[in-house]
Amino acid sequence: MKSPAQQYPGYKMKKIGIIGCGAIGTAAAGFIQRNLGKGARVTALCDIDPKKAVLLSEKIRPRPIVTTIDDLIKKSDLIIEAAGMHISGTIAKRAVFYKKDVLIMSTGGLLRRTSLFKKARTRGCRIYIPSGAICGLDGLISAGIGKITRVSLTTRKPPKGLKGAPYLMKKGIDIDRIKKETVIYSGTAEDAVREFPKNVNVAATLSLLGIGPKLTKVRIITSPAYTRNVHEVEIEGEFGRLFTRTENLPSKTNPKTSQLAIFSALAKLKELI
Ligand SMILES: NC(=O)c1ccc[n+]([C@@H]2O[C@H](COP(=O)([O-])OP(=O)(O)OC[C@H]3O[C@@H](n4cnc5c(N)ncnc54)[C@H](O)[C@@H]3O)[C@@H](O)[C@H]2O)c1
């Protein structure tokens, strides 16, 4: 197969920097090395735990540098954020500052920084959001051309998938004592992202592409009988009604991350390169 450089004269190999060398970062690095040929190369890695970045760098040829967030952004053409929503907003901001394209997995960190999308456009770079662990975003974007009256997300997760959420502590909910199907949370996406920071990138993505975090409704339900993370998306508007249900299997490397979320990052990379 012809490389992008052969197919498109003038194409320059993209230097990719990955921030966060866990399940998604590692899968992305492997995919780029195996599947994107001469179109792209992982040239820099960063992790808050430098050992993880060094370990991953040893598996890639030529070996990428292990460096800081700012240095990585400066030296890359495309940055992949796969670290967490506590840092994703800052990463997007720094990428836009340096006029670099950035793929954000932890979309929750963008909810308070939506002006960055416009800023990126004016600076000639892009913030990419993969579809993550849900389906139906194409329909949501199309529906937004007309009037959308309702966007709701119902997330079903096994109890262990919700462990450690600030909301449970605040409400004194002992997740291990739940014996039957229970609605744990019902409210806005804005509050859900704060109360379940490790669980609701899906709610954030829907908010960013739809009617915003204040109007997007979220329900989180758990039961010891659940074995999968299931997301149901319902959208109503001028176009009619749309309903999608995604039954996710957890990734083998991080049970909190759905395999489809990892695939969505890889599919986005394939589309971009
Ligand atoms: N959009 C979606 O649908 C979706 C789905 C799953 C996960 N996510 C997001 O993607 C992120 C990565 O997922 P994962 O499964 O690879 O998680 P993971 O826990 O396997 O890996 C995260 C890595 O980031 C590193 N890290 C944490 N804070 C950092 C910082 N400040 N700077 C640099 N590195 C840092 C950790 O040490 C770890 O190696 C998650 O935190 C989540 O926010 C999004």
Description:
- The chain is an alpha/beta fold and 273 residues long.
- It folds into 2 domains: 142 residues, Rossmann fold (3-Layer(aba) Sandwich), CATH 3.40.50.720; 114 residues, 2-Layer Sandwich (Dihydrodipicolinate Reductase, domain 2), CATH 3.30.360.
- Helix content is 36%, strand content 24%.
- The protein is built from 11 helices and 11 strands.
- Helix 3 links the parallel strand 2 and strand 3.
- The chain is globular and about 55 Å long.
- 41% of the residues are buried.
- Nicotinamide-adenine-dinucleotide (NAD) binds next to helix 2, helix 5 and helix 10.
Provide a short characterization of the protein structure:
The protein has helices at 4-7, 23-35, 50-57, 69-75, 85-97, 115-123, 137-143, 166-171, 189-195, 201-209, 259-272, and strands at residues 14-19, 40-46, 65-66, 78-81, 101-104, 127-128, 148-157, 182-188, 217-222, 229-237, 240-248. It is of the alpha/beta class.
Going by CATH, what is the homologous superfamily of the largest domain? Answer: NAD(P)-binding Rossmann-like Domain
DSSP strand content: 15-25%
Order of helices and strands: HEHEHEHEHEHEHEHEHHEEEH
Morphology call? globular
CATH topology of the largest domain, what is it called? Rossmann fold
Bound molecules: nicotinamide-adenine-dinucleotide
Mean pLDDT: 94
Uncertain spans = none
Q: What topology, given as strand order, has the largest sheet?
A: 3-2-1-4-5-6
Total number of strands: 11
Main sheet attributes: strand count, strand direction, barrel closure: 6 strands, parallel
Gyration radius over CA: 19 Å
What is the CA-CA span between the terminal residues?
15 Å
Number of helices: 11
- Provide the CATH architecture of the largest domain: 3-Layer(aba) Sandwich
Helical amount: 25-40%
Number of domains: 2
Name the structural class. alpha/beta
User: Would you state the CATH class of the largest domain?
Assistant: Alpha Beta
